[in-house]
Amino acid sequence: xxxxxxxxxxxxxxxxxxxxxxxxxxxxxxxxxxxxxxxxxxxxxxxxxxxxxxxxxxxxxxxxxxxxxxxxxxxxxxxxxxxxxxxxxxxxxxxxxxxxxxxxxxxxxxxxxxxxxxxxxxxxxxxxxxxxxxxxxxxxxxxxxxxxxxxxxxxxxxxxxxxxxxxxxxxxxxxxxxxxxxxxxxxxxxxxxxxxxxxxxxxxxxxxxxxxxxxxxxxxxxxxxxxxxxxxxxxxxxxxxxxxxxxxxxxxxxxxxxxxxxxxxxxxxxxxxxxxxxxxxxxxxxxxxxxxxxxxxxxxxxxxxxxxxxxxxxxxxxxxxxxxxxxxxxxxxxxxxxxxxxxxxxxxxxxxxxxxxxxxxxxxxxxxxxxxxxxxxxxxxxxxxxxxxxxxxxxxxxxxxxxxxxxxxxxxxxxxxxxxxxxxxxxxxxxxxxxx
Length: 436
Hints:
Layout: E1 7-12, H1 20-35, H2 39-48, H3 60-76, E2 81-85, H4 95-115, E3 121-125, H5 134-151, E4 160-163, H6 169-186, E5 194-199, H7 202-205, H8 214-220, E6 225-230, H9 232-238, H10 251-264, E7 270-272, H11 292-318, E8 324-326, H12 331-359, E9 365-367, E10 370-372, H13 374-390, H14 395-398, H15 405-410, H16 413-419
C-alpha cells in the first residue's frame, strides 16, 4: 500500500501539465528565498509572531533543521499528492471545453508518467453526481480514463477519483458501478481505480435518521474507498455559519473530524482535513519594479497567510489528521514547516518512550508520568513511520527509537515484539500490567 501523503495539492484541470509538480516546487522555493531566506527568518514568522495560544509555534532550536529540510523537500519532492480538478478549481466552462480538458489532462498524465515527473499520488475530482451535473461528471471520467488507456501506459499507481458534494450512498454506488464498467471496457484490472469521498454536505456526515452516514458511503464504494476528505467550507456554509467564521478551527469542523475518526477507526480508510483558504498571494506582483513599501506589504501578506496555514496544519496533526489540502504553491512552505516541526519536536519524547517500552518486552510501563501499553507502542511506531515517510525524520533519528530499519519496515509493533521473541505463543497478548 502507498504511504499516506501529507497533503493534497489541488489545481484546475485546464492548467495541469506533466511538469506541474516541479513547477510548484520552484515557485515555493522562490517564496522561501524572498520571505524566509534563513532559519532565523522562518522562526520569526512561524514562532515569535504566532499568537501565544498557538500550539506548535516553531522554536529557534528547531528552525535550522526545519528550514534545511523544507528547502530539500521542495527540490526533491515538492508535491506528494496532486488532484486534477474538474469541479471548483475548473470553474464554469462549456461542454466542449471540459471534453478538451479531460483528454488534454490524460495526455499530460501519460507524458508525465513516461518522463517520471508525476507526484507519487495522483487523482482527479469530477463534478457532483447530482441530477444537474452527474452526466457531465461521468463523461469527463470516461474521457480521461479512455485517453490514458489509448496511450498504453496505464494508470499511475494509486490513482483515485474524488467524488464531491455527496448527499447519499446512491451517488457513491453509481460511481463504483461506472468504474466497474469502464475497467471492463478499457481493459483495466478490476478494482484498479480507487474512490475518495468528500464529506462536505450535512447529509454526507449525518443521515436523515440521525445515524453517522460516512460508514454507509464507504461501504457503497464496494472496497474502493481509500480516503475520506473533509470539505470544511461547504459544510459550515450549509450549516448557516457566516462566511467570515468559516475556518478549519470552527467547532463544527472539530465535531466533523471527531465523527469521521470515530466512525472509521480501524477500517483502514485514511482521513484528510480541509484547506486553508487564506492564500499567501502577493498583492504587488507581475511588475518590473516593486517599491520598498510594496515589498513590505507583500511580505506582511505572505507571512500572515503562512502563520494561519501553519497553525491549521499543526491543529490537524494534533487531532490525528496527517493529511490536508493545499491550494497555492507558497503553502508548500508552511505545509512542510508544520509537518517537519511536528515530528522533530516530538522526536525525543517518542524515542524515549518507544525504546523503554521495547526494552520492557512489550509490557505496560510507566515512563515518567506517561503510561504505555501495546496500543501505545503501535501509536509510537506510527509516529516514526509517518515522520520517515514525509522526510521530517532521518533514518538516524528514527534509530533513536531503539528499533532497527528492518523492524520499522514491518509496520507492526506486535510483529516487532514477536521477532524479538517477546511473544512466546502465537496469538498470545503480552501482559498489560496493572491498570492505574
